[in-house]
Each structure stands twice: as structure tokens, then as C-alpha cells.
Amino acid sequence: MNLRFRQLLIRQVLSHFNIKREQGRSGGFTLIELLVVIIIVGVLSAIALPSFLNQTTKARQAEAKSYIGALNKGQHAYYSEKLIFTDNINGLGIGLSANTQNYLYIAEGNPALLTTRITNKAVSRKIAVKSYVGVVVMVNTTNEAVIKYMLCNSNNPNHIVGGTAIPNGDIVANEPICPTPGFSLEE
């Protein structure tokens, strides 16, 4: 529709409503008027619903990012005190629940390698929600030992509780790396 036609249509509709109001009718709305309102509300709902659902997914994923960040920092503090990482989330003393409505949180690592690396995992409980992994490593530089960590997100929607197992992260060239396949660095 061109602009002139739209203006003419709007003018006609408003004119129609003014005539009806001036006639002083008290019968309420016509069926056509109600249908137009219902159609407009339906179109607006169809536009708004996907946006709303996307925001709830982002909120759920923000929970996982926050928890994994806290677990990574908790592992850092634990290692600073004990010189080993722990696969017991409750042992970190950070007061986070290992089970929430959206995620199952676990810390996993090869027991023989807990002095150098641990992988904190947020395994999604929902189909459309990404799983996340925090890889924490201790590396020796020329002068000191340094703890590094990173956050990785799942590229595979099957990384859910009861779905595809999430592999552990690793160290390459003194840097933590995301589990492969299926995870990439969170930006």
C-alpha cells in the first residue's frame, strides 16, 4: 500500500467511528470492529512471543554463565589453598546448589590430573538451552605457576541431562582449551 492510500483508509475509518459516535448509538461495538481488534492483537502477539521466548532462554543461560564463573573462581581459591583442584562442588564452599531447575552442575577431571586441570560443567535440563563448560588449568611459566580459566558454550543441542556426554577441557601450549568436539569459546 502506498502512503496516500493508507492515509485515505485511516481517514475513512476514523470518519466512520466519528459518525457512529455522533449518532449516539449505545449498542456497543460491531462484529467487524471486534474482529479487527482481535486480528490486530493476534498479529502483535505473533510478533512479541518469539522475542519473549528468546529472552527467557537468555535468562536461563545467564544463570549458567554466572554459576560457571563462580565455580571457576572457587576452583582457583581451592587450588591456592590445597594445591589441587576438586571434583566436589560442595567442597568449594561457595554455596551454590548443584541442581537447579535449568541446569545440573558438576566438576569433572581425571583424578591423576587434578593437580593441573578441572572442568566445571553446566549441563542443560532444557532442550533449547545451551550447556556451558568452565575449563580451569594450572600452568607453569618461567617465574611462577598461573591459574587460567575460560568459559565455553555448547554448539550441540544434545548436551542435555541424559543426552550426549560432555567431554573435559584440556591444556595446549599453556592455555586452557574448550572440550572438543561441540564447544567453542564464549564471547
Low-confidence stretches: none
**Biggest sheet strand line-up:** 1-2-3-4-7
- Beta-strand portion reads 15-25%
State the secondary-structure class: alpha+beta
Kindly state the number of beta strands.
Answer: 7
**What is the makeup of the main sheet?**
5 strands, antiparallel
- Average pLDDT, all residues: 84
Number of helices: 2
Span between N and C termini?
A: 43 Å
Secondary-structure element string? HHEEEEEEE
Give the overall form: elongated
What is the rounded Rg?
A: 28 Å
Classify the helix fraction into a percent range.
Answer: 25-40%
Written description of the protein model:
- By secondary structure, the chain is an alpha+beta fold.
- About 40% of the residues lie in helices and about 20% in strands.
- It has two helices and seven strands.
- The protein has helices at about 5-20, 30-80; strands at about 105-110, 115-125, 130-140, 145-155, 170, 175, 185.
- The chain has a five-stranded antiparallel β-sheet with strand order 1-2-3-4-7, with helices on one face. Strands 5-6 form a two-stranded antiparallel ribbon.
- Strand 3 and strand 4 (about 145-155) form a beta hairpin.
- The mean pLDDT is about 85.
Features:
187 residues; alpha+beta; 5-stranded antiparallel sheet; two-stranded antiparallel ribbon; 2 helices
Detail the topology: elements first, then pairings.
Blueprint: H1 3-22, H2 31-82, E1 103-108, E2 117-124, E3 132-140, E4 145-154, E5 170-172, E6 175-177, E7 183-185
Antiparallel strand pairs: 1-2, 2-3, 3-4, 4-7, 5-6
